[in-house]
Write a structure and sequence with these properties.
The protein is mainly alpha-helical and 297 residues long. It has 2 domains: 165 residues, no CATH class; 70 residues.
Length: 297
Amino acid sequence: VDIMVANGAAPAQVVVAKNQSVLAERILRSVSSILNGDENAVMAADDFGRDSEAFGQTLEGLLNGDPTLEITAVKDPQARASLTAIQKLFESSVQQGANEILQSSPELFQVREASGAIFRDSPELLSTLTKLTAIVDEEANAVLASIIGVASLMLTLVSLFGFIRVRARQDKERAEKEAEIDRKRAEEVEMENQRNQSAILRLLDELGDLADGDLTVQATVSEDFTGAIADSINYSIDQLRQLVSTINQTAVQVSAAAQETQSTAMHLAEASEHQAQEIAGASAAVNEMAVSIDQVS
């Protein structure tokens, strides 16, 4: 602004240039609000878009003229050189990435730490800023402050672009890794289910004869989840075998006792018949004695 005043620029051009400084400061405040992630961040993002567009149109008008905005082109070579340098910085950083920043404004709140790193990675922009500083004299401190503010904004935006791209790439890689882990986990679950189904079918097949009363069945005890079941079934079958064996032994003992009882009963019957015969003989003898006694009488 001071250069234009010193070189006799038109008052309207000086006013427009001062408005550019105001726009640059507003853009810086909007970016600061976005980076801080405060409650005004959404409104600041909208202001950033409008102010960036207005800044670019006005800058173009100062260089080439714009009848619509009633701006005439600056003729002074020194002022035009400064404006051209500012335009290059603006087009390479702000104008090309404004839409991306607005669309990615939620992620911008996470990149406050990235703003400092850009100053170490942008020697060309810093060199341009140094050249612009050499152009103006001591009376152009206000303009220089505005230029530095614009450059700082651009450097910050560049850092934001880089951070957003890195963050997007990291998110994509993380999503791909998680998808691969889920796929492997699903395959492992499917294989485990198949092993379990095979183990169940094998156990059912081995126990098929048990339903027909075959106690010689022996279930296979494996490391599958049916192993504990098979071991329990084998124990139950073993207990059944012992029970059946005990029942068979008891049946044999009962049969032997029955036979012994039958033999004893037959022996007692024979003895009873013999006693009956003896009693009958004694009774006949008594009768004969009684008859003989009667005859004697």
